[in-house]
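quick one
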Amino acid sequence: MMRIEVDYDSCESNALCAAAAPEVFELDDDDQLAVLQPKPPLALCGAVEEAARSCPKRAITLVEDPA
Ligand code: SF4
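structure w/ iron/sulfur cluster:
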């Protein structure tokens, strides 16, 4: 299973990750990034990997989570 970690100090809330994986990432009303599914199902992993690649700040880290 995959777990998503976000470096909120680096994130500049440009929503590129949300464009790549809208089921997982969105900006809240304060323009703060929200991770809707920190442990996304396998079916979304491709989109999440694309989101991580699309982040210009390299703020998204994908961690193997055995649980
Ligand atoms: S793409 Fe990166 S910088 Fe942009 S909102 Fe997502 S995590 Fe933040």
